[in-house]
Amino acid sequence: MPALAIRNASSKAVLLPTVVVMIVCFYGSILWTIYISFTRSGMLPSYSLQGVAQYVRLFHTARWHTAFANMFIFGGLYIVAAIVLGTLLAILMDQQIRLESVFRTIFLYPLAMSFIVTGLAWQWFLNPTMGLQHFVRSLGWESFTFNWIVDRNYAIYTLVFAAIWHGTGLIMAIMLAGLRGIDSEIWRAVRVEGIPRWRAYLRIVIPMLRPLMVTCVVLLAIDVVKSYDLVIAMTKGGPGTSTDLPAKFVVDMSFERANIGLASAGAVIMLIVVLAAVGPYLYFELGRKNR
C-alpha cells in the first residue's frame, strides 16, 4: 500500500505543473478577456469598468454583422459538406478496394498542409488571371467565367471550397477507423437478412458511429473558429469585407485598430456561440447516460 500511494502521489505531482499552466494560461486568459470586454481598453488594457458599452458598439458595427453572418455560412457549409464527403469516401474505402493505401495518402495529403498553404494554393487556382479561368480560356473556351474569388457575392464560398478540400481527408480517416471497428457479426446478419448494403450503412452502421460524428463536428468547428489564417492567405477578408470572419475581426481590432476592448467583446461572443452549439449536445448526452 505505501508503494502504491507513493506511485499515485508521484503521478499527480508530475501532472500538477501541466494542470497549473492550463488553468493559468487557458482559463485565466478567458477570464481576463471577459473582464477586458467590459472596460474602455484601447491600445493598452484599461481596468476601469464601463459596463456593456463595448458590446453595444460591437453590435452597431456593420463589419461585425458581416463577419458573424459569414461564420454561419462558412461553418455550416464546411461542416456538412466535409462530413458527408468524408463519410462517403470512408464507405468507399471500406469496400476493400485496390490501392487503398495510395488513395488514403492522396485524400489525407491536404491535411499535412497548413491553412496558409491551402489558402495560397486555392488563391492561385481561383485567380481569374492565372488560375482555372485563364487555363480553360487558353483551351479555346473564351466565354468561360469563374471569378468567384473577386466577386463579393460569391467569395465566401471559395473559402468553403478550400476548407472542404483541406478537412475532408481527416473525416474520412476517422470514419474509416470506425467502420473497420464494426463487429463482423453485424455484417453477417445483414447478409442473412438480405438487407441491401447501402441501407445497412444508412440505417445500422452510420447511426452506430454517432460519437465519431460528434467528434468530427467538434474538430471542424474548431477549424471554423480559428479560420483566420485561411482568410488572410486566400482573400484577406475581401473583396471589401465580404469574406470577413469573426477571428479576423478580432485580430484586426486588436493589432490594427488598437481596440482591445472591442476585440475582447468579439472574442467573448465567439465563445458564447461555441458554448451554445456544444452545450445542448453535452446536456443531452450526459442526461441520456444518467437515465
UniProtKB/TrEMBL annotation:
* GO BP term, pick one: transmembrane transport
Q: Which parts of the sequence belong to the ABC transmembrane type-1 domain?
A: 68-281
Q: What name appears for this protein in its UniProt entry?
A: Carbohydrate ABC transporter membrane protein 1, CUT1 family
The family database entries (PROSITE patterns) matched by this protein are listed as: ABC_TM1
Q: Which Gene3D superfamilies is this protein grouped with?
A: MetI-like (1.10.3720.10)
Q: What SUPFAM superfamilies does its record include? A: MetI-like
The record's Pfam families line, in alphabetical order, gives:
BPD_transp_1
UniProt cross-references to InterPro entries, sorted A to Z = ABC_transporter_permease, MetI-like, MetI-like_sf
Location in the cell reads: Cell membrane
Chief subcellular location: membrane
Family assignment from sequence similarity: Belongs to the binding-protein-dependent transport system permease family.
CDD domains this protein is in? TM_PBP2
Q: Which stretches are annotated as coiled coil? A: none
Keywords from the named record:
Cell membrane, Membrane, Transmembrane, Transmembrane helix, Transport
User: Which Gene Ontology cellular component terms are annotated?
Assistant: plasma membrane
Instruction: Report the membrane topology from the UniProt record.
Output: Multi-pass membrane protein
